């Protein structure tokens, strides 16, 4: 009430100025990563409601918008296809068909991943195909960085082929429908999407593949002999040679085939530096090395590497250690914490040997580096501990291409659900949100997923980001800011601009913005603006401008942070930030020219 009464005494332009400033602050917060995007978006929504700029009934209406609900159902359907092994089966076929030939691998990435991403959330598609490609590259001695950027690009381009291929399409389409325009149907944008996919394919198979870099991934930093190392746990006997001796003076310091990792005393890791450490009876030593090193430790006087019952200590054994790659996922509980804070070795019983981040492979002194989404790690440890680590889903397994699906007998139901969604969306008049709910319930009742797995499959951060940005987009419309911006643009170009020029400007603006902030945020804010531009130009059918927003907001090829799939392959491929500039900018320009010509022809404006 206070906020509402306060706005009555302010000038008419006040609320537009606040909304404009708020958008700038939120977008700047996205770029500078002040807080998570979902928190920034919801905070912006709260501020608009608290100041009375956005009426309460209108603002809360964002939570009844069907776009986030459709996106949530798509997360569940994608998880069902993943959990039942449908995506994995395509991956196994990919490996068999490629035969290890680089050009054939590139072609198959486009042919399989592109169309699949038109109907399935592209994140699980990339997550499944990443380890398949990495394994294929190791098997045929190929460089992974030649294929992972194309994997992400194919997933992005494929997402433009249908209305449900990416959340940006759904958001823009629903905002346009609520404004009174003809609702988009499942395949209304497919022709342009196929043109996009064709341009991406032609580029990657010709000029683009020559621009792809040769980068070293983490696993290639270590030669094959290190895969056959062992983790050894031993303890210091009481009243024997090593009791009271410093590490520097002990025989262990002179061994070159094994190294001491940590010392556990009374159940806690000893923090004293090794050069100053003095052994005490009962100390448990954790070491890593080759078999000859293990044998020398077992022969060292005062050391014991024998049965657990004889020593009265737990986990005292020698185990074969395997080397695997993993990636910190977007939902990992480890983000923002250091390995030291996590007590990683004690918690999981495995070692992190190296971390890749932003084009740099870190092998030394990374224990105090906070983990972030997209960090790729090289992990070594016993096979059972590795299995436990990856089962917790804090890391995405980049080494194993199998084992994702455990309900393969339910695969036919998942396929039926996907087919029903496609056919009903194409040929029925039932609203998309109703169809989405129906196929989601089918996967649950058929046992493709449990209810808990369905809830876990939904990325709630993206949903709340969409809710918040839809509310901010509503404020752009309600306050008249969209109309003001549209009038300025019309005045700047002389009142009756060429449709091709308008599409070019709209597409380029959204494409640039989506490289640095969330594509969902761009779609939610820019769609109301382009609708007002269409009104200001007195165009009866401004759907082409909405399509320009859809495709521009999906065209994130020039940075590894504009789209989540780019972030996934960024670390796994050992890329540098500049690699995306070199490969992505020419592609962005090609697609910009394609959209500028094709959109006004397919959706005549005026």
Structural class estimated from helices and strands: alpha+beta
Helix content: 55-70%
Shape: elongated
Q: How many beta-strand segments? A: 10
- Helical segment tally? 26
Distance between the termini: 43 Å
CA-based gyration radius:
28 Å
What is the strand content?
5-15%
Report mean pLDDT, rounded to a whole number: 81
Unreliably modeled segments: 223-228, 304-318
Largest sheet: 10 strands, antiparallel
Task: Describe what you observe in this structure.
The structure is a single chain. 55% of the residues lie in helices and 9% in strands. It is α+β, with helices and mostly antiparallel strands. Strands 1, 2, 3, 4, 5, 6, 7, 8, 9 and 10 form a ten-stranded antiparallel β-sheet that branches.
Key phrases:
9% strand; 606 residues; 55% helix; alpha+beta; elongated; single chain; 26 helices; 10-stranded antiparallel beta sheet; 10 strands
List the topology elements.
Elements: H1 2-7, H2 14-32, H3 37-50, H4 56-60, H5 66-83, H6 86-98, H7 102-117, H8 122-139, H9 148-159, H10 167-178, H11 190-211, E1 230-236, E2 258-265, E3 268-269, E4 284-289, H12 291-298, E5 303-304, H13 308-311, E6 318-328, H14 339-342, H15 344-348, E7 351-357, E8 360-362, E9 376-382, H16 383-391, E10 395-397, H17 411-427, H18 432-445, H19 451-457, H20 460-478, H21 481-492, H22 499-514, H23 519-536, H24 543-554, H25 564-572, H26 577-602
Antiparallel strand pairs: 1-4, 1-5, 1-6, 2-3, 2-4, 6-9, 6-10, 7-8, 7-9
